Amino acid sequence: MTTLEIEAAKSTLNIKQAVPFFWVSNMEASLRFYVDGLGYTRTNGKLRWCWLERDSAAHMLQEYEPGKAPSTKRGEGVSICFQCNDALAIYHQAIARGLHPQRPFVGNAMWVVILTDPDGYKLDFESPTDAPEESLYTEEK
Prior knowledge:
Blueprint: H1 3-11, E1 21-24, H2 27-37, E2 41-45, E3 49-54, E4 57-63, E5 79-83, H3 87-96, E6 105-107, E7 110-116, E8 122-128
Parallel strand pairs: 1-4, 5-8
Antiparallel strand pairs: 2-3, 3-4, 6-7, 7-8
C-alpha cells in the first residue's frame, strides 16, 4: 500500500476504541481501587454503572443487583494489558496510594507491573526496557 492508500484506509476505520466492561461485586471497593488507587477519573455514570478514564485508556464497571451475582469467581483468567511510556511510574503511584502491586519484572523486553482489582481482574501495565529478561525491579536507595 502507498502512504496515500494507508491514510485513506485510516480515515474509513470504524472501530475507535476497545473498552473493557467489568462486572463488580462492590462498586465502592472498585472505585477506591481504580479512582483512589490508580488515579482514574469517573467521567459519568450512575450508582451501579460508571465509565472510568486515565490518559487514553477507559473501562466500565457495573455492579450486580443484590442477589444477582453469579456463584462463579469474577475476573479469573482475565488480563487487560496497558501499554505505557513508564510502567514503573504506575508501580510507584500505586504504592503511594495504598495499593499492593506485584514486584515489577522484565518480560518480552518490557517492564511489567501487575495489579489485581477487588474482583480478581488482572491489570498489566507494561513499558519497553533494555533491562535483561526476567530482571526484578529493585528500589534505588
